[in-house]
């Protein structure tokens, strides 16, 4: 195993996860690798959670995105986390956040590293970073994600490295490690196509800061991949027909433009739909490479994919890493403040496809909160892409829970993406193209195309009566949240 530490004077830093966890003290700010369950700490943070069961220990924890193996939940249950940012998906942690026991900062994923570099956040005390191996210069070769690890390694006072022997050493070369200059000396990021590589292949680390090295042999938590159902298939078909029409109108070609898709079953179904389409030589500039990414590569539909992590099912994980030579020239993993940087999204003309919890008749989107107060996961990178994309698309089912809940409403209970950042809305019922429409036109288009039949008449009535009252964006404020109130009181949004 010591062959994975190519800087020999670091060999004496090898220790157990329990000993490494002792470096972390009460009140510290910790930065951990990990982006949507990929490339995360699998031993040290788990050991910290065990320690927290017997000690009064509170930390602020920053990551790239969510952690795997229930680590967030273990830390939350042990009352180790005081504050968490910028994203999470764990149900135990979520419940603690919504109860007010843990503070949560929901951030655009492109911004966390920028805020650290600008010294707008507390300085990092310790970084915990997963690596495939350590280079002779002390730099680390990441595993299945890059996330915020470049910034964490640079800015933390101390660094703990987890070397994961499950990840083959020939993962070297799939990463593009680039750190933009601090303001006011920021230069142009010279990426003009998804396949451009502009940085180095390992994360620079000052060897003097490396306090401990822990070996692990644990794969990433597998992604939860749900098979496409009739609703997600319908959404995918509406989108594919839309793209075909855009090609027919001369706005796009059969190669489209680089695609970004949020994580989850809807996005996976949409991407899977491209397999049987006439589109070809597709590219991706996104945050996460999912099963559908590699399915499209295997089908000859996708020629290159750029992201910050690989988050896939167990079957797909084995397929990729057992055949890494097949994929290595077709993928790249970058720091998330590069994969999600607004300027590149605008320059490359990204087609962004993200998931909504609900949207309203004017096109405002809630992607984070249930009934306006209880957070689900976080905004993730959807805001980075929505505001800057060539096409900003949001998808959701028209109704759920035996149609007791409508996902198209008079007014959203929480706004993550305003109508100004939304071009296309899609449900299993249909698609609304909102480009070039004034608020009243947008509302009628959404009612006509996206609303479940059980709610269409009432939503039309709301809009008609609001128009009679007047206004550029007509509303009946006394009724705007009545659907949410009915759900809270009666368990159903219908009258």
From TrEMBL:
UniProt-listed Gene3D superfamilies: 4-hydroxybutyrate coenzyme like domains, Acetyl-CoA hydrolase/transferase C-terminal domain, Glutaconate Coenzyme A-transferase
Domain of life: Bacteria
Active site residues according to the UniProt entry: 287
Keyword field: Transferase
Domain spans labelled Acetyl-CoA hydrolase/transferase C-terminal: 319-462
Keyword Transferase found: yes
Coiled coil: none
A single MF term (Gene Ontology): acetate CoA-transferase activity
Residues binding CoA, per UniProt: 262-266, 357, 377, 381, 401
Single GO BP term: acetate metabolic process
Keyword Transferase on entry: yes
InterPro entries for the chain: AcetylCoA_hyd_C, AcetylCoA_hyd_C_sf, ActCoA_hydro, ActCoA_hydro_N, NagB/RpiA_transferase-like, Succinate_CoA_transferase
Domain Acetyl-CoA hydrolase/transferase N-terminal: start-end pairs: 8-214
PANTHER family attached to this UniProt entry: ACETYL-COA HYDROLASE
Xref: NCBIfam families: YgfH_subfam
Family from the record: Belongs to the acetyl-CoA hydrolase/transferase family.
The protein's name: Succinyl-CoA:acetate CoA-transferase
Lineage: Bacteria, Pseudomonadati, Bacteroidota, Flavobacteriia, Flavobacteriales
């Amino acid at each position: 195993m010591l062959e994975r530490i190519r800087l020999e004077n670091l060999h004496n830093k090898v220790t157990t996860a329990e000993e490494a966890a002792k470096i972390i003290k009460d009140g510290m700010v910790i930065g951990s690798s990990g982006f949507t369950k990929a490339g995360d700490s699998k031993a040290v943070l788990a050991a910290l959670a065990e320690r927290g069961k017997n000690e009064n220990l509170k930390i602020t924890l920053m990551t790239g995105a969510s952690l795997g193996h229930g680590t967030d939940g273990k830390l939350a249950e042990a009352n180790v986390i005081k504050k968490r940012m910028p994203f999470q998906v764990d149900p135990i942690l979520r419940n603690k956040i919504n109860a007010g026991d843990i503070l949560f900062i929901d951030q655009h994923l492109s911004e966390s590293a920028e805020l650290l570099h600008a010294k707008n956040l507390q300085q990092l005390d310790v970084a915990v970073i997963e690596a495939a191996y350590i280079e002779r210069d002390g730099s680390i070769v990441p595993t299945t994600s890059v996330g915020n690890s470049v910034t964490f390694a640079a800015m933390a006072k101390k660094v703990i490295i987890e070397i994961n022997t499950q990840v083959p050493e020939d993962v070297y070369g799939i990463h593009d490690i680039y750190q933009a200059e601090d303001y006011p000396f920021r230069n142009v990021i010279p990426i003009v196509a998804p396949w451009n590589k502009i940085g180095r292949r390992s994360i620079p680390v000052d060897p003097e800061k490396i306090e401990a090295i822990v070996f692990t042999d644990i794969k990433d938590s597998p992604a939860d991949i749900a098979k496409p159902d009739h609703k997600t298939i319908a959404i995918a078909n509406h989108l594919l027909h839309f793209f075909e029409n855009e090609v027919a109108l001369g706005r796009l070609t059969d190669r489209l433009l680089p695609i970004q898709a949020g994580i989850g079953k809807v996005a996976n179904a949409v991407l899977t739909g491209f397999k049987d389409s006439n589109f070809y030589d597709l590219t991706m500039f996104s945050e996460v490479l999912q099963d559908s990414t590699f399915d499209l590569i295997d089908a000859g539909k996708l020629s290159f994919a750029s992201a910050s992590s690989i988050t896939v099912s167990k079957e797909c994980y084995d397929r990729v890493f057992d055949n890494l030579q097949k994929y290595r020239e077709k993928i790249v993993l970058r720091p998330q403040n590069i994969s999600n940087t607004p300027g590149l999204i605008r320059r490359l003309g990204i087609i962004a496809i993200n998931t909504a919890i609900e949207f309203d008749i004017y096109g405002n989107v809630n992607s984070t909160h249930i009934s306006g107060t209880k957070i689900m996961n976080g905004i993730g990178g959807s805001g980075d892409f929505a505001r800057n994309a060539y096409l900003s698309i949001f998808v959701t089912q028209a109704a759920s829970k035996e149609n007791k809940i409508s996902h198209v409403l008079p007014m959203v209970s929480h706004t993550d993406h305003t109508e100004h950042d939304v071009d296309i809305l899609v449900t299993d019922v249909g698609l609304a193209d909102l480009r070039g429409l004034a608020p009243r036109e947008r509302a009628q288009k959404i009612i006509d195309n996206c609303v479940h039949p059980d709610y269409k008449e009432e939503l039309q009535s709301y809009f008609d009566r609001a128009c009679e009252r007047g206004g550029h964006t007509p509303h009946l404020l006394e009724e705007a949240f009545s659907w949410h109130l009915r759900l809270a009181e009666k368990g159903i949004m219908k009258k």
